Amino acid sequence: MSSSPNEFPVPRAAPTRRDALARLLRLAWPASLSYLLSSAYRINDQYWIQGIGPDAQSAIAAAMFVAIANFALPFLAAAGALSLVSRAMGAGDEAAARHASRHALGLAVALGVAMALIGPLLTAPVARLLALEGGTAQLFTEYLDALFRTAPVLFAIPVLDHVFIGRGRTFAPMLLQALAVSLNFVLNPLAIYGTGTRAALPDAPFAAWFDAAAGALSVEELGLGALGVGGAAWATGASRGIALLLGLWWLRRTTGTSLRPRLGLDRELLARLVRISTPVSLSIAFYAFVYWALFAFVLSDLGDDVKAGLGIGFQVFEGVAYPTFLGLSMAASSLIGHALGARDAAALERTLDVSKRTLLAAGIFFALAFAALAEPVAAVFSASEEVQREVVLYVRILALSQVFVAFESLWDKVLTASGHTRALAWIGGLGNLARLPLSYVAVTHLGWGAAGVWWAINLTTVAKAFGLWRVVELGGWRRDLDPVTSSDAEDEATLPRG
């Protein structure tokens, strides 16, 4: 297969800083835009469900962290796919890249089917675990039930993205996300309100058009419209499902990766995928479960306005900043994986250098943007002055940690690319778990209210960033650059062949 415009080998000549920056940005802007578009689902949901009321926004905020916990499962395949595919491409082994891609996608779909069967049974217990009550609990279970049922699609999408990015092809995920988000914007009001969009949100763009379209398509009669908050989840699943089918076709056509089910499994490869991915998956799970505990034991006493403020601040503000950091970090990860596979130390060091400078600049930019835009943006997403006040409080405190969020993302992806991921679980796990006692003390003993929780998040973010930086600086992950092939299970020489 010939290389696409976004798929290229790491050059053997020592790259200049300008060359390294150009390659990083060439991969990063489509990746960042892709992740920004992915976050647009949550922004779409927050915007369209406001017509149901603050209870719906509080429910979506709680469900968001359950959804993040769910993504720990597909990352059992995704993180390993990024590492194995990028290093296989750097080594010039197309067959190994296809082999790893096929097994990672199959694993993701299998996990998604299991979640679709088991997840709906867990919605009510999870609502009780999060101390949700009344209308908020009911809306939470409606949304989460629908979201669980779309798990096979939602689990396969991030793995497909990681396969493309591992190849240095970030343009494909961007286009697929653009298609899916565009579809989601149209499907959300139809699925949530049916012909009642204008009544619920008279100032919403195209509200009259959406009502007319819902009537013409008979979505309510077909059971596809006016589904309430659950409709937002179904709209997400449908839009991503269409993008997934197109993306799989694209992967097959451009790389020759066979997607036909096969009886024979490479158990050694599956074990390696899971071994590389497990620390990343655990880190995601710890992150989400800590927020579950915060909802149950700390935020439950602070009211729905605080939870709604958290939901809007997290999904709208961090939903723009973090995808930007992640896109830059994923681009760096792909280049580092290629350099490790090619044993190109010069390219590796230059990529690290320009990545650190770029992430620093991005972190400073978003810190300033958070502080400046908190009030005007909060007013767009809620008519409630109380909710707006909580959004502004959250965003302005979190602004102070954005540089550290950027570097945490970079160090995470550097280690993921190398396959040396063990530190991610214990540093991320301990850092996130520390948020619970710190938040509890700040709220119950110091009387800082919601601000105490947000400061606890800031403090632990700084600690995690420094912990991962220390692991990267120690350099054990660089041993794959040694000219003598390592027998370590994580060494690139054991990449599957054929």
TrEMBL record:
Q: Where are the transmembrane segments?
A: 58-85, 105-126, 146-164, 171-193, 232-252, 273-300, 320-340, 360-381, 393-411, 423-442, 448-469
**UniProt cross-references to InterPro entries, sorted A to Z:** MATE_fam, MATE_MdtK, MdtK-like
Q: Which Pfam families match?
A: MatE (PF01554)
Q: Where in the cell is it found?
A: Cell membrane
Q: Cite the entry's keywords alphabetically.
A: Antiport, Cell membrane, Ion transport, Membrane, Transmembrane, Transmembrane helix, Transport
Q: Does the keyword NAD belong to this entry?
A: no
List the membrane topology term(s): Multi-pass membrane protein
What PANTHER family does UniProt report for this protein, alphabetically?
FMN_FAD EXPORTER YEEO-RELATED, MULTIDRUG RESISTANCE PROTEIN NORM-RELATED
Q: Can you say what this protein is called?
A: Multidrug-efflux transporter
Organism (species):
Rohdeia mirabilis
